[in-house]
Amino acid sequence: MSATGVFAIITSQSAVVTALLTLCLHYIVGLCGSFALHELGHALVLLRADGGTSVTLERTAWRISVRATGAIRGRDAFLAALAGPGGCAVAGGILLLACPHALLHVWFFAHAVFLLPVFGDGRALISGARRWDRRLGEITP
């Protein structure tokens, strides 16, 4: 990609330069930035949760996520699950108002899909709602 960019600059092909800059902007701000904000939202709520001792970042080839250690209440799990996509939705709204033509807001609004029960956030949302006042993982009689 850098050879294409250098060639476009040398030959004064501004459309190619603009396309490459737009692609880089969408990769850095849209893709990477939205996932960083998503996980930061989870981490901030989990760090403030009563009973949580630490938050670790887990990374695989296809997934980045945070995991709390300790026994947190269901409401904290519910709020943490909502905080990731919720923070992205707020950022998406700001981007929509600030620069609608850039279409960066689409990346951030797309994080709402993670609230569906097939994803971890959606499952945590349901689990936290069901056990709102109880600590997750505790055995009930």
Describe this structure in words.
With 141 residues, the protein is mostly helical. It has one domain (32-130). It contains 5 helices and 2 strands; from the N terminus they run H-H-E-E-H-H-H. It has helices at 2-10, 14-48, 74-98, 105-109, 120-130, and strands spanning 52-59, 64-70. Strands 1-2 form a two-stranded antiparallel ribbon. A hairpin with a 4-residue loop joins strand 1 (52-59) and strand 2 (64-70). Helix 1 crosses helix 2 (14-48), helix 2 (14-48) runs antiparallel to helix 3 (74-98) and helix 3 (74-98) packs across helix 5. The longest helix has 35 residues, at 14-48. The chain starts with a helix and ends in an 11-residue tail after the last helix. The mean pLDDT is 84.
> Which whole number gives the mean pLDDT?
84
Strand order of the largest sheet: 1-2
Percentage of β-strand residues = 5-15%
Q: Choose one word for the global shape.
A: elongated
| Total domain count | 1
With helices defined by DSSP (H or I, 4 residues minimum), what is the helix count?
5
Query: Major beta sheet, specifics?
Result: 2 strands, antiparallel
Radius of gyration, rounded? Answer: 19 Å
List keywords for this structure.
5 helices, mainly alpha, elongated, about 140 residues
Topology, element by element:
Blueprint: H1 2-10, H2 14-48, E1 52-59, E2 64-70, H3 74-98, H4 105-109, H5 120-130
Antiparallel strand pairs: 1-2
Helix pairs in contact: 1-2, 2-3, 3-5
Give a quick rundown of the structure:
The chain contains five helices and two strands. It has 141 residues and is mainly alpha-helical.
